[in-house]
Amino acid sequence: MAQKVLDQQAESNYQALIQQANQQFEDEALEQAKSTYTEALLLFPERSYPAEQISAIEALLDEMKALADRQKRIDELIALGDNFLETGQLDEADTAFNQVLDIEPGQLYASSKLTQIQALKEEAFRQNQAKYVEFMAAGDQYLNEKDYREAVVAYKTARGYLPNDAIANQKIDQAEKLLREQQMAIMTEYNKFINDADRQYNAKTYDRAIEAYTNAERVNPEETYPREMIRKIAKIIEDNKLVEVNLDAVQVLANTTKRFTFTPVNVIERRSNYIIIKAKNMGETEFPLIFSYGSEAGRNGGFVLPIPAHTEYQDYIVRIGSQYKWFSEDNDWFSVTPENGNIEIGLVQISRGN
Predict the structure, then answer these.
(1) Using CA atoms in the order 169, 170, 173, 178, what is the torsion angle rounded to 10 degrees?
(2) What is the pLDDT of residue 3?
(3) How far apart are CA 252 and CA 274, in angstroms?
């Protein structure tokens, strides 16, 4: 009798648990339903219904987790794609949004972004094409002007807009080859002037040395040696001064003449005389400076100095002792006349060679 009552109580509890679990299942409270079905199964382990429901719930939970993981990955990829799009990394953004479509074909947001990216890529290509044409044309112009260094830069810039472009690569190779040949020719001519300049310097023929160093500097402005040697010669000449004709800076306007007077140099020392002039261009264009000398009888001679478009003081050294009228006459004045340009004259000095 007591066993029958226990069995009835167990059945009643079982049915109540099944009813509760079914309601929880319908309400989609799956974890609670699984727990309640498990309690019912403990009362009657041999009954299949609770076990079947538990298996169904576990399958639903697995599916829900998979869907949640899928959505999380989609959200991550969309956020990544948006960030790439915002920073202009179109290829990376394209990859991210295509990965979204691999997970969820037809996903509307990713599809719309891919359409936007395609439009941006097409516009970028048009702009890159225009820049490519612009820099290729610049490269061709530099090539025609024999400015091969700038041609290489322009062609490489053009290639940056259309990577791996065969024509740009061909132009780069051509310009680099011509640049190497040009540099070799420049160095050959430069070394020729330097060898001559060094030989004249060692022979203490300073005016010819300066002329050769100046030519070397003109051929290859990037080399500092010629200017260093010109300064060295200027120091030698300056240290062997005989007469300081002028020390204070004087500005002379274009097409006007400024005269400086001095005591004539001793005739014994005239043949070794050098004139050193420190001057700077006050404008932006080059012009000639007419330098004259003479005596009470009038002008006896002179020379012309090319004044470059340079805003710093330059040293000009002339071997005036080789001019007949200098060593044969008692010259006592200099004058400077800048043609079509303003100049500032600093030091004017008569020196002797070593």
Answers:
(1) -140
(2) 65
(3) 22
pLDDT at 118: 94
CB atoms within 10 A of CB 249: 13
Instruction: Write the CA distances from 1 to 5, 6, 8, 313, 343, integer angstroms.
Output: 7, 9, 11, 129, 134
Report residue 280 as tokens: 């700077």
Sign of CA dihedral 188, 192, 198, 199: positive
Cα–Cα–Cα angle for 312, 316, 322, nearest 5°? 175
Q: Is 345 helix (H, G, I), strand (E, B) or coil?
A: strand
C-alpha closest to that of 13 among 39, 33, 46: 39
Q: How far apart (Å, rounded) are the C-alpha atoms in residues 157 and 152?
A: 8
* Cα dihedral across residues 142, 143, 147, 149: positive or negative: positive
The pTM of this model reads 0.55
Whether the CA torsion 103, 109, 112, 116 is positive or negative: it is negative
Per-residue pLDDT, 1: 58
User: What does the angle CA 199 – CA 204 – CA 207 come to, to the nearest 5 degrees?
Assistant: 90
Query: Which residues are 250's β-sheet partners?
Result: 345
To 10 degrees, what angle do helices 30-43 and 48-86 make? 160
Q: Mind listing the pLDDT tens digit for each residue in 227-284?
A: 999 889 888 888 888 998 988 999 999 999 999 999 999 999 998 899 999 999 999 8
Q: Are 182 and 150 in contact (CB under 8 A)?
A: no
Residue numbers of the chain with a pLDDT score lower than 50: none
